[in-house]
Structures are given as structure tokens and as C-alpha cells.
What does this fold into?
Amino acid sequence: MSETPRLPDAHLGKAKELALQHRRSSKCNSCYDRGFQGTDEHNMLVLCPKCVDASAVLADWRLYVRETPELEQLYGDYFEDDEEEDDVAGNADAEKNAP
It folds into this structure.
């Protein structure tokens, strides 16, 4: 059995909404203008690689996970390493800009 928990169906609608928000083109034959091609075995969207800005969707999904206690409990540790890297990069930028 895999380590990744299954996304509760109640949150799949929000994921679809985020995929639609970050589409780069109006017509796509790969996803039929949905922004995603389906779901995987963890009930997570498979974003369309042709018309969706995946990094923007991921950034918004991170915010949604942080704001939703149920998802924070399920997926919070998946984003901790990335947040620490962002904090380190932010501190490095702050040190460069310090007088």
C-alpha cells in the first residue's frame, strides 16, 4: 500500500476549481477544456500539461491545505521541506539586501 493518503472527495471540487483558474489557453484537446485529465489512485487531479500552470496550482493548493485542518493533518508534512527551503532562500535574500 502506498504512503500517500487518499484525498477526501469533499476537496476534489476545490482542486478542479484551482485547475480551471490557472489555465493558460481557452481551447485544449488534451483535457477538453477542464484543466485536468482525470484523477490518480490517490483521488488527486492529473493536471493537463498543455494548458495548466502547474506551479501556480500547487502554490494555491498549498495555501488551501494550510487553511483546511483536515488536509493540514493529512498532507501538512508533504510541504514542510519546501517551506523550509523557501524560508532559507528568503533569509538569504534579506541578508543580501541588509545595509
